[in-house]
Design the sequence.
């Protein structure tokens, strides 16, 4: 087992509120890890920090390169951290910070290999299904103004590849017939699947799903769990998911991380978590002492 | 009502409206993507007029006299350099304020437009500048009219309408059919989501400013050739007029900007031709006020749903 993502000492404060307190966990390569916990435990905040949507207050979020085992990517650095006094006698650190201050942002986190979906669907409603998937591949197409204007051969080939990849994911999610509909006009269940397809089009190594089963009926949830398992088994993808449907979570996940009040209270295999006293207390409440 | 005067005002209005439309595109695209009014856009147009004159002089000095080469060369160079100004304005005045409240970039816009005006006033002088006529000649309709009953269209006027239509068509094509345009539309709908999908939204916003400035440069080039004279202050009035056109068409809508420009141009020329030419600006701005009160979403804009 090799780790793909290591979160260490992650703390997130909003003014005086500490949403996350020294959260630490690892996600193994080609595994399904579920993040669970009662409402307000900070699950989505962890997601937002990992995907670059929020800039964490302190801590490290590290994406490992499985091919070489070295060359870890610091996802927090990419968002542009503020300068520290010690940087001024370390020119390398200083120049890296300056670079990410100027050119950093969530798009770099995505390009490093982290993609996500949202709990409340955020598709581009006024774009067609196909266009939604093509936008996600913008970084790979390199669509500069001049290349697009002149329709260079290189640009056309890249664009063609993007369409092929989009078509493959549409087929996987059984959306091929809807390719030319506006995303906003799709039924809810389709929109959920399209959002996953769009995240996958960015060619992530880590796919973060925020409540993928929310609002789905039992049959759809069953189909979804098959899809997520297929992502792991057929494509070797690593999935990190937040989910309230405990049936789904216990069925498919290899590893569970339980959060409560912004702290990790337990982690381990599903069977072990189901027996954990602190987890039961967090979910069901404690009795009289 | 004299039919030839009516026809003549139609022609004048269409020509004026095309230039309004070209500038309005810059307002509407920037509003669409970051929801702010770029009040420095008029100054970008003013700078393009100066650049046109500078490049015309340059071509003459070098000794290139072939008219199509000069016109095309000056147009391309003006667009490039004006685009550079547009890019710099965004980079210096707006990007650092991206995450502050909505008023900050507005004040910054007013500041940058004062800076640009005075930069031109100091570097180029406050006096009226001009370019010699480069393209002369007229069409007359009907061609063999002996009295004064004819509609006159200069070659330049027809050039203005044609160039404006062609550049609008190219811009629409870019937005609708290229990867860049797709990213622009995605960024317009949900900037954060586009960013999370690996789109460098800062670069997309810069590109929008560049495209807006290039369109303003087309207008500056055409108007300078047509009227021949300009000063450092022309950007203000033209900017407000083009803003009016963008509001009329529905701000945020690309075809709306062109439609609004033509409607405003026609309305203004008919007012000048049949009512009073001294009050044509008053009339144009009355239209702006009426639209802002009664139909703020313009002709083609979608009324904003009040989110509670």
Sequence:
């Amino acid at each position: 087992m090799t780790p793909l993502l290591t979160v260490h000492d992650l703390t997130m404060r909003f003014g005086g509120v500490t949403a996350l307190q020294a959260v630490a966990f690892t996600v193994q390569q080609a595994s399904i890890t579920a993040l669970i916990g009662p409402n307000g435990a900070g699950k989505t905040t962890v997601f937002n920090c990992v995907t670059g949507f929020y800039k964490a207050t302190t801590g490290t979020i590290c994406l490992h390169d499985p091919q070489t085992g070295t060359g870890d990517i610091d996802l927090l650095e990419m968002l542009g951290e503020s300068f520290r006094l010690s940087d001024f006698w370390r020119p390398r650190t200083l120049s890296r910070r300056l670079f990410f201050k100027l050119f950093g942002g969530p798009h770099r986190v995505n390009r490093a290999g982290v993609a996500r979906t949202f709990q409340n669907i955020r598709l581009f409603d006024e774009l067609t299904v196909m266009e939604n998937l093509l936008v996600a591949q913008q970084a790979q197409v390199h669509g500069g103004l001049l290349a697009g204007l002149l329709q260079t051969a290189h640009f056309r080939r890249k664009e063609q590849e993007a369409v092929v990849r989009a078509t493959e994911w549409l087929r996987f999610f059984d959306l091929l017939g809807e390719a030319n509909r506006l995303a906003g006009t799709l039924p809810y269940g389709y929109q959920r699947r399209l959002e996953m397809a769009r995240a996958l089009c960015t060619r992530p190594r880590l796919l973060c799903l925020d409540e993928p089963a929310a609002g789905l009926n039992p049959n759809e949830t069953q189909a979804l769990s098959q899809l997520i398992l297929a992502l792991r088994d057929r494509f070797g993808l690593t999935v990190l998911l937040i989910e309230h449907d405990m049936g789904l979570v216990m069925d498919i996940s290899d590893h569970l991380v339980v959060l409560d009040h912004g702290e990790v209270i337990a982690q381990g295999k599903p069977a072990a978590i189901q027996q954990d006293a602190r987890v039961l207390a967090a979910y069901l409440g404690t009795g009289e002492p | 009502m004299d039919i030839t005067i009516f026809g003549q005002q139609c022609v004048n209005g269409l020509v004026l409206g095309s230039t309004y439309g070209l500038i309005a595109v810059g307002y509407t695209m920037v509003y669409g993507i970051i929801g702010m009014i770029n009040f420095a856009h008029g100054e970008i147009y003013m700078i393009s007029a100066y650049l046109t004159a500078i490049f015309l002089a340059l071509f003459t000095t070098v000794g290139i006299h072939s008219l199509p080469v000069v016109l095309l060369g000056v147009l391309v160079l003006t667009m490039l350099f004006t685009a550079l100004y547009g890019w710099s304005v965004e980079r210096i005045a707006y990007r650092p304020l991206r995450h502050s409240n909505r008023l900050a970039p507005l004040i910054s816009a007013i500041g940058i437009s004062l800076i640009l005006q005075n930069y031109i006033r100091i570097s180029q002088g406050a006096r009226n500048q001009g370019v010699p006529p480069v393209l002369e000649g007229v069409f007359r309709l009907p061609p063999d009219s002996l009295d004064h009953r004819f509609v006159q269209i200069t070659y330049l006027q027809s050039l203005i309408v044609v160039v404006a239509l062609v550049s609008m068509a190219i811009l629409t094509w870019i937005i609708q059919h290229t990867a860049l345009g797709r990213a622009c539309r995605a960024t317009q709908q949900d900037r954060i989501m586009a960013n999370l999908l690996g789109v460098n939204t800062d670069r997309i916003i810069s590109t929008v400013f560049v495209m807006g400035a290039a369109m303003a440069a087309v207008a500056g080039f055409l108007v300078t050739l047509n009227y021949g004279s300009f000063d450092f202050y022309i950007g203000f009035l033209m900017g407000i007029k083009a803003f009016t056109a963008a509001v009329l068409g529905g701000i945020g809508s690309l075809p709306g900007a062109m439609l609004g420009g033509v409607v405003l141009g026609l309305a203004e020329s008919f007012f000048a031709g049949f009512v009073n030419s001294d009050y044509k600006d008053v009339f144009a701005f009355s239209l702006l006020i009426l639209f802002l009160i009664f139909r703020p979403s313009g002709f083609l804009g979608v009324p904003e749903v009040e989110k509670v």
Q: What stands out?
A: Chain A has a mean pLDDT of 84.
